[in-house]
Automatic annotation (TrEMBL):
The keyword Protein biosynthesis does not apply. Residues 257-299 have a biased composition (Polar residues). This is CD55 molecule (Cromer blood group). SUPFAM superfamilies: Complement control module/SCR domain. Residues 68-130, 131-194, 195-256 form the Sushi domain. PROSITE patterns: SUSHI. Residues 250-308 are annotated as: Disordered. It comes from the Eukaryota. SMART domains: CCP. Keywords: Disulfide bond, Glycoprotein, Repeat, Sushi. It comes from Phyllostomus discolor.
Amino acid sequence: MSEDSKEAFCPKPLNLTRLRRASAGSLSSAMSPARPCAPEVLGRLNWLTPLLPPLLLLLLLCPRASLGDCRPPPDMPNAQASLNGLTSFPEGSLVTYTCNQGFTKLPNKADTVFCLKGDVWSEIEEFCNRSCDVPTRLLFASLQDIYNSQNYFPPGTVVEYDCRRGYTRNYSLPKTLTCLQNFTWSKPEEFCNKKSCPNPGEILNGHVNITTDILFGGLLTFSCNTGYKLVGVTSTYCLVSGNSVDWGDPFPECQGSPPTSNVTPAPQKPTTVDVSATRSTAVPRLTTPSHASTPTGKGTPSAEVEEEFLRPPQMLYVGQLRHRSQGLVGNLGASSV
């Protein structure tokens, strides 16, 4: 490069003689140091040229926190922040903490922080502390409503229960539980007893079987005697009915007739009529006009009647007596014609 070209890019150093002659007004500007020429500056930066692309890429991938976002929120005792894998949070971001196992959030204490302007998180106080778990759930009693919305039970807390439907209060025992110093609940006593259903008795031509008892939740089963059919339910439970308890279904009936016996009845003895033995004088004697013998050689009807009535007394079957009586009446009628 020629001297003229260099002078075009880099001015010559100031002449001190000229500076002395310069006026006071232009002295300050004349004394300003000469800036290095562009070729010299670029020459000094040539070693940075290969590093420019990686530096630009690193700048693009740099986390936003470097641009003014909040860093991860502060740690809190006995709690963990829900970060969802993030390492920086823009202004207005919200982060919620969760108490560690065995610790409970204190009532009216915040468990959330906000990212404010200037890489600052909102203030938060310790909000997790040891507590008993939710009070014990009991089969015979329910926790009073006032405690259902409560989740913090420090040692010494006392909770009360009410008997469930189907149970009656046993006033000899307390209906409370207490959170102990080891953060467990006291052992509950059975301060509610089951109510009793009415005595089922028996069903006609059948049986009522009590499987356990007749208290709330008890079970009955039904069966019929041989030859009878069960009409209705085969079982029923003792259930809640209003403010009391009762059997859940109407009792069944046993309908039908007992089976006939297969034993052949013994033959009955024939019934006899004891005709008193009397003399012929006590027997009515029927006299009729005499007639000649019939061509058949038999006697006349009058003779047959007389013979029948004068026959010696004997034991006659009822059927024979009836048959003979009818025969005699018939003979009498024929003889009168």
